[in-house]
Amino acid sequence: MPSFEAKAILAGDAKQLDEALNALAPATHKTPAELRRHLAVQIYRQLLAHPQVDAQLLPLFTAIEPSLVNQIALHDSFYSNSQDPVRLALDTILPAASRWYPRTSKPAQQFYEKLAQLLAALDSYWQMPGSAATCPALDDFCQWLASEDKRAALLESRLCETELSSQKLAITQARVINLLNTHLAQRPLPLEVHSLVSTSLRSELQYWASNTAAADLADLPLWQHWQRMLPLLGQVFALGDIQVDDQQLYSKIPALLTELERSLTQPQSNAPAYQQLVDALSHSLMLTIQKHPQEIALFNALPLPQEPASPQVPQTLLQATESIRQGDWIIMHGDNQDAIRCKLALKEASLDQLLFVDHTGRK
User: What pLDDT, on the 0 to 100 scale, is given for residue 310?
Assistant: First the structure.
């Protein structure tokens, strides 16, 4: 039996329109006027068919079916002219309606109310004789929708910026913490410098890691200094079973003192705090090489930033996301199988992250 696509017909595909007529005519034996109405009903219902529009909106669209079908049946331009008033109304309403799903937020409820008011106005307007022009209520809805879309785009943009910044900050923090832990965790360090390493040094390195391109970070002089110092710093202080012979002290401590002094000539994000760090380390190193006593303790590993809980995504869905592009609208299903209509606002492969928003731009 012939089949047809409503969207193809409205896109100007005459062959699809012919298929529709062939599908409907033999089984009905209807008059041309009846056939027009029957075709209009089939086209309209296919445009609304699940999952295009959420089930909660369907009663609103069903209520206007009689008056809308009458308009389509009276004006063949619906199929051939994109400027036909009924076509313009559906082209405005259906894309917006297809992106709505029930949420408790005020914007979601407002859209439902605005749409209900518009459809009621269109229903009344199309029932009036000679109502071939665009309904004034549609113009008002278009203006309101444009302002809401603009607000949603701004909210979405800010959300993406915040998410990217947050993810990049977490990656930077983890990089610096791993660097410090690799060389200093559970190694003896003077108590005087414990807090300075975990605050001032960590903050300084994070600043440069955040504000320098990853490819350029290895060439940054201050970063180079600490890449050389950290391995030595974890090997020059003794505690309990961890001992350092004099030869190591006399070879490594002068090198550390030289590196510390040279690092002061490089730009710093917080010069006073960095100066305090260098002074405290230099003082502790001098006490060590002079064999003067000082309080030493094992440096506790710094905790990594806590990552937000991530949903467990099935492998099949992960594979499906490969074909989804940023800006695409999709329908997912929640635990209760309710449709979740969302837009892929951010697809950042380097961060292994997908960010979806609803039609209001909310996460």
Answer: 60
User: Residue 47 is encoded by which pair of tokens?
Assistant: 């445009």
Best CA proximity match to 10, nearest among 90, 78, 72, 84: 78
Q: Which residues of the chain have pLDDT under 50?
A: 1
Determine the distance from the C-alpha atom of residue 120 to the mean position of all C-alpha atoms in its chain, rounded to a whole number.
Answer: 36
Q: Give the pLDDT score at 317.
A: 67
pLDDT value at position 179?
93
Strand-pairing partners, residue 298, are: 188
Run of H or E including 268: none
Based on the number of CB atoms within 10 Å of its own CB, is 253 exposed (0-12), middle (13-18) or buried (19 or more)?
A: buried
Angle, vertex CA 44, rays to CA 43 and CA 47, nearest 5: 90
**Token representation of residue 236:** 């020059």
Residue 132: what pLDDT?
59
Which pLDDT value is given to residue 187? Answer: 93
Dihedral (C-alpha) 79, 84, 89, 90: value to the nearest 10 degrees? 10
CB 327 within 8 A of CB 122: no
- The pLDDT assigned to 250 comes to 87
Q: Which 3 state secondary structure label does DSSP give 363?
A: coil
Residue 152's pLDDT is 93
Q: Which of 149, 169, 168 is nearest to 157 (CA)?
A: 149
Q: Which of 143, 134, 85 minimizes the C-alpha distance to 114?
A: 143
pLDDT in tens, 268-285: 999 999 999 999 999 999
Question: pTM of the entire structure?
Answer: 0.70
Tokens describing residue 240: 């309990």
For Cα atoms 154, 160, 162, give the angle at the middle one, nearest 5 degrees.
100
Class of residue 299 by CB neighbours under 10 A (exposed 0-12, middle 13-18, buried 19+): buried
Distance CA 342, CA 331 (A): 6
Structure tokens at 53: 């529009």
pLDDT given at position 1 = 43
- 3-class SS of residue 345: strand
Residue type, 362: R
3-state secondary structure of 214: helix
| Distant-in-sequence, close-in-space partners of 72: CB < 8 Å, separation ≥ 6 | 36, 40, 43, 44, 78, 86
What are residue 290's phi and psi, to 5 degrees? Answer: -90, 5
